[in-house]
Amino acid sequence: MATFVDRVVLHVTAGNGGHGVASVRREKFKPLGGPDGGNGGRGGSVVLEVDPQSTTLIDYHHSPHRRADNGKPGAGDERNGGDGGDLVLPVPEGTVVKDAAGDVLADLVGPGARFVLAQGGRGGLGNKALASPRRKAPGFALLGEPGESRDVVLELKSLADVALIGFPSAGKSSLVSVLSAAKPKIADYPFTTLVPNLGVVTAGAERYTVADVPGLIPGASQGKGLGLEFLRHVERCSVLVHVVDCATLEPGRDPLTDLDVIEDELAAYVTDDSLGGRPLSERTRVVVLNKADVPDARDLAEMVRPMLEERGLEVHVVSAVAHQGLKELTFALARHVAAARAETEREAAEQPRPRIVLRPKGVDDSGFLVRRENTPDGEVFRVVGERPTRWVRQTDFSNDEAVGYLADRLTRLGVEQQLLEAGAVSGSTVLIGPEDDAVVFDWEPTMSAGAEHLTGPRGTDLRLGESTRKTRGEKREEFHSRKDAQTAARDELAAERRAGRWTGGEDDA
Questions:
Q1: Which tens digit of pLDDT belongs to each residue from 356-390?
Q2: 389 annotated ligand binder
Q3: How many CB atoms lie within 10 A of CB 402?
Q4: How far apart are the first and last CA of the chain?
Q5: Residue bearing the bigger pLDDT, 454 or 342
Q6: Is 191 annotated as a binding residue?
Q7: Which helix (H) or strand (E) holds 336?
Q8: Ligand-binding site membership of 14 (annotated)
């Protein structure tokens, strides 16, 4: 079972917004007190946050599908629905977020760094919020918007100053264990190290981190062995240390050949330019000839040392087991790390700080486009735009008044005029929304909901009109007027009967 995972595909869905509600206040002596429907709550967002206690992405390897809470619907008496809770996903420091196309969305460095991966949907408005002087009694409410859904790739790239690289069983884990307080697993067989091990080293006033990268083999940059999976952990390191096994008994292995093979793999590996990393072949490199406690190995190290120095490489002969040459190596690495940090600061100071211009996308962006398309089912007109799509998602199509409200909004926005200019006629097929989930209309110009034919103009109720209660005398006068009218009608019928102008049916004979 995997215990360390540094690359996962994550499927996240933010929470949907709660629906608004259509409600009418009812009070004593005032059965229709006006609309009082509350708004729906906002859906929860999915957020990535750097957690110092997190070291692996294994939780998302076993559970790659994550969803935030939905917002609660509104209620009567102007009660708004509660917001859905945000889903905060802890990730290790150094996690890189990429979209499906491989573009970097965020590089999470620093404790507490956050990135909103999927935004929750907004809640729908209740009929109280939709009421206006012209629309006193809306009989509908808006639906909540669906939350965003995204598929992203999370890659963990260790944050270390020095990377120990080399063939399996070259002594990298042993070197980390004696240079720092890290206690990696050590054994005399290939691929003992299956995960990067990090340790903190102190040399005088300098502190730096060392990463033990799992063993590389020829072809690692093309995916052979474990190298390709863990070369990404070298990208952030400023100093690369070649740990060479001088006591190996494998045929065809010697320090110079091992060094050339690893150098070729480093040169073939393509770093992520979007993170500002230099090619691995341009990093500061130090060669450590290990296992010098073995007599034959020490003789071999002393023999190849001048050859490596002729290449311009700094060479150290050490023994992790016998603790030989470690102090010199520790301070030499501290010197290189300090130089790399100073160079980084100098480059940052020399380069003018770019002026950051934020151009956020308008929530109520009125821009839209009408496209005329030919499909296998015939000619259609597609309306593309943020506001028309959002309005369609908020509309309850089972409510005629809500559909009419949508038609009014689209007309005021200019969609109907654009459709006419694009060549749409009565009965044309109009699509509004994304291509995979669009709402289809059989378009009729100047569309109406029909509700206004029942109760007057849309959004009004005659029962809520301005009126005063009748007094007792007015009610008594109205009662006597009805009685007098009934008496007069009976007297008129009786007179007509006596005159013979009105007779009954056959039953009267």
A1: 555 555 555 567 888 888 888 788 888 888 888 88
A2: no
A3: 23
A4: 104
A5: 342
A6: yes
A7: helix 326-350
A8: no
Report the residue count for the chain.
509
Q: Is 115 annotated as a binding residue?
A: no
- Is 321 annotated as contributing to ligand binding? yes
Same domain, 265 and 334: yes
Distance CA 443, CA 445 (A): 7
- Tell me: the pLDDT tens digits for 119-164? 999 999 999 999 888 888 888 999 999 999 999 999 887 777 888 8
pTM of the model: 0.68
Say yes or no to pLDDT of 453 above 80. no
What is the CB neighbour count within 10 angstroms for residue 71? 31
Residue 502 reports pLDDT greater than 70: no
Tell me which residue range forms the domain holding 382.
Answer: 368-464
Q: 133 a known binding residue? A: no
Say if residue 195 carries a ligand binding annotation: yes
Return the exposure string of 92-103: e unless at least 16 CB atoms fall within 10 Å of the residue's CB, then b.
bbbbbbbeeeee
Measuring CA to CA, which residue among 12, 123, 122, 18 is closest to residue 67?
A: 12
What phi and psi, each to the nearest 5 degrees, are found at residue 87?
A: -100, 110
Q: What domain count does the chain have?
A: 4
- Distance CA(271)–CA(443), nearest Å, equals 53
Sort 291 into a burial class: Cβ within 10 Å, 0-12 / 13-18 / 19+.
buried
| CA 317/CA 287 separation, integer angstroms | 9
Question: Is 225 annotated as belonging to a binding site?
Answer: no
Contact 89, 110 (CB under 8 A): no
Local structure of 298: helix, strand or coil: helix
- What's the CA angle centered on 24, arms 18 and 30, to 5 degrees? 160
Check the annotation: does 488 bind a ligand: no
193 has binding-site annotation: yes
Among 350, 378, 410, give the residue marking a domain's end.
350
> Does residue 357 lie within any of the structural domains?
no
Q: Are both 231 and 314 inside the same structural domain? A: yes
Please check if 174 is assigned to a binding site: no
Same domain assignment for residues 449 and 394: yes
Is the domain of 220 the same as that of 304?
yes
**Are 180 and 271 members of one domain?**
yes
